[in-house]
Fold:
Amino acid sequence: MANRIRLTKWLAASLLAVFVLGVLGCNSASQEKVVAVQGLTMGTSFSMKWVDADESRVPSIRAEAGELLALINQQMSTYIDTSELSVLNRAEAGVAHKVGPELFAMVQRARQISEVSGGAFDVTVGPLVNLWGFGPEGRITHQPDTVEIEQLKSKVGYTFLHLDPAASTVLKEYDQYIDLSAIAKGYGVDQLADLLEARGIRRYLVEIGGELRMRGVKPGGEPWRLAIEAPRAGTREVQQVISLQQGAVATSGDYRNYFEEDGVRYSHTIDPRTARPIRHRLVSVTVIADNCADADAWATALMVMGEEQGYNFAFEQGIKAMFTSKSGDGFDSRATPGFVPYLQEPTGGL
Structure:
């Protein structure tokens, strides 16, 4: 599909976009109500909900949101041949290539997270994702040849990208392929939230494919409550409910996008450090952060690290995260201290 950014985290693993709201209705005292705009983008859906007493600006906000999302796709999609990122990916190695401020900012932030995470997050991993059959080139049923894996691994690495902030240029040492799908969806959420902020709207919940950012409270003063999906294939039920009045939330999981060969399950989540799918018990990670781009990227990085390394890293770095791992026939969840205050009682199936 030519109009989407490739998603490597699979929608079913993300936060359910069925918010635990009760009723999207009016507040009789002030005539405030939750109004909404929704549509399709980046190979998935998006929605914008905000509290308003005036619905007259819904059409203009819908139009602005559509234009904004189209622009982000044109900047950062790997599915659009003419996008700015696609042009960068085809650019000659060893030559500094000037890019726009938005694309440069995302590549720069991705590189910073790569450095802090020790390479668990790496936007140059795309060729390996394709090799393992989880990219736009289609699925495979057999694991790739070891020689081919190692050949690609030698060219994958965020250290091969050299950035010049003053000139807004990116230089690739080799023919690196940059894929921002693990951060661009969150960036899109942030941009939609900023659109509402620019309109003076301070009570909202914005979502793209289950990645969210919210602020304020609903009519009646209740905070936004969000349902995290249970990591069970073939069902849609609530694992946990969280509540917050400001921030962003993203989830990464591996339990629905995989292939099996000789009884071995190969996850779509590729560890850039090993060039192979993750093989630990962790099935999903949910992160709360100030902005959705960071939440998006850190959820991926922690998912790659696994239940022990990921938890310890998040604890040390002060990242608000919840880890859900396989345990016998069920699952165990563990949250960092910063995440615990947001937890609510699960409400069962949706």
Remarks:
- Confidence is low (pLDDT under 50) at residues 1-29, 257-266.
- The CA atoms of residues 110 and 287 lie 16 Å apart.
- The chain has eight helices and 19 strands.
- Helices lie at 58-76, 84-90, 101-116, 126-131, 146-153, 181-198, 292-305, 307-317.
